[in-house]
Design brief:
Layout lengths: L1 H20 L1 E10 L6 H20 L3 E2 L2 E11 L4 H13 L4 E3 L4 H13 L3 E4 L14 E3 L4 H14 L5 E6 L3 H16 L3 E7 L8 H8 L5 E5 L2 H13 L5 E4 L6 H7 L7 E6 L9 H12 L7 H18 L4 H10 L2 E2 L4 E2 L12 E7 L2 E7 L1
Parallel strand pairs: 1-3, 1-4, 4-5, 5-6, 7-8, 7-9, 9-10, 10-11
Antiparallel strand pairs: 2-3, 11-14, 12-13, 14-15
Helix pairs in contact: 2-11, 3-4, 5-6, 8-9, 11-12
Length: 374
């Protein structure tokens, strides 16, 4: 009897090892700010990728005759360039060949060299145009660039808000500077006067001195190239100083965190531009929002859908090439097209989306509220 049990145990072990041999584990890296003031964005992005991975694993997909099991390896880059390069090295050294992120342009630009050298396929929402001008293969921007975000906000301000005089503040990050430069260029082209350009940092919370300087110039709008942790307090201080100007910005202030930090100083006076069409009007947008809320007990923020799409973009390319080889998968992404929740992902030779609409938002009840796609 003992031998019979032994044979059964060995048979089960053989079945288990056979089943294991039929499964391929593919690790997906995520680099984003999971601590500090921008952690709300980093976690939201991570959750978008996580939801896609859980759905894919539940199916699961088959590549090369084996079921693929995806595993998310999420690292905190703190929104800091040096930390981001260290994360890139850690993920690359760990054999990870697919990464969603980094979120921040200042992190993505230096980290992209490490990923390129290791042959990693990267999908990032970082919007500074320089990211895709470096000539790296298999680097894809799954979002509008600053050129689109900044210029569309300027066009909207000129044509719809009838603004004649603006000022610009940027936080000196790669993202903030790039966005502010694009806004300025288009603002001037659209006939607006740029009456001043002030500078701050992505750690500041007191903007009284620079806002006081701008108050004397009677500007109708202030464009801020930076993030919500600074945008919220800035909106409060604009009100406290009695400045009658709208606060404009890019995608990083198009977030519930902006309303939370700015309180009742953030309303119809704040407008921002975000890449992609309206989730509510996208064919699978409402279903995605419902799935996300059920899984994480929170509404998706700015880029959860883009990270969800990026993960599915990787998976579709693996299936179409019947390979997990990053070179083959990257080539398939470059040549193909994927219809996601937040848009259609077809890329030009640089890795930018061929078409990325921009949506203009304002705020109602502390939440971003879409006005129009532009």
């Amino acid at each position: 009897m003992k031998h019979k049990y032994l044979v059964s145990a060995l048979a089960l072990a053989g079945l288990a090892s056979g089943a294991f041999a039929q499964e391929t584990v593919v690790k997906i890296g995520h680099s984003g700010p999971l601590s500090g003031a921008q952690a709300f964005s980093g976690k939201d992005n991570e959750n978008g990728a996580r939801l896609a991975i859980e759905e894919l694993n539940a199916k699961p997909i088959t590549v090369g005759g084996k079921k693929v099991k995806f595993e998310l390896v999420s690292e905190d880059d703190q929104g800091d360039p040096k930390a981001g390069v260290n994360v890139a090295q850690k993920l690359s050294d760990g054999g990870i060949r697919y990464v969603v992120g980094p979120y921040n342009s200042g992190v993505a630009i230096p980290a992209s060299r490490v990923y390129a050298n290791a042959g990693v396929v990267v999908a990032s929402v970082a919007s500074n145009p320089k990211l895709t001008q470096q000539g790296y293969k298999n680097l894809f921007r799954v979002n509008a660039s600053d050129t689109q975000l900044g210029s569309k906000m300027a066009l909207y301000a000129a044509k719809e808000l009838k603004v004649k005089t603006v000022a610009v503040i940027d936080d000196r990050t790669a993202f903030g500077q790039g966005l502010a430069a694009e806004f300025k260029k288009q603002a001037r082209a659209a006939g607006m006067t740029v009456a001043g350009h002030e500078y701050t940092t992505d750690k500041s919370v007191d903007f009284t001195a620079i806002l006081t300087r701008l108050k004397s110039k009677n500007v109708e709008a202030i464009f801020f190239g930076g993030y919500a942790p600074q945008g919220g307090p800035m909106a409060r201080q604009i009100r406290q100083l009695g400045i009658n100007a709208k606060l404009l910005g890019g995608d990083t202030i198009c977030t519930a965190e902006m309303g939370k930090l700015g309180g009742d100083a953030v309303g119809s006076n704040v407008l921002c531009s975000q890449g992609g069409a309206l989730l509510d009007k996208a064919a699978s947008g409402p279903a995605f929002k419902a799935k996300f809320k059920k899984r994480f007990s929170a509404d998706p923020d700015v880029y959860a859908a883009s990270y969800y799409d990026a993960m599915n973009l990787f998976a579709q390319a693996m299936q179409s090439t019947n390979s997990i080889d990053p070179a083959k998968v990257g080539a398939a992404i470059t040549a193909g097209s994927y219809q996601g929740v937040a848009g259609t992902y077809a890329f030009d030779a640089k890795g930018d989306m061929k078409s990325s609409p921009v949506t203009i938002f304002t705020f109602k009840g502390g939440q971003p509220a879409a006005i129009t796609s532009y």
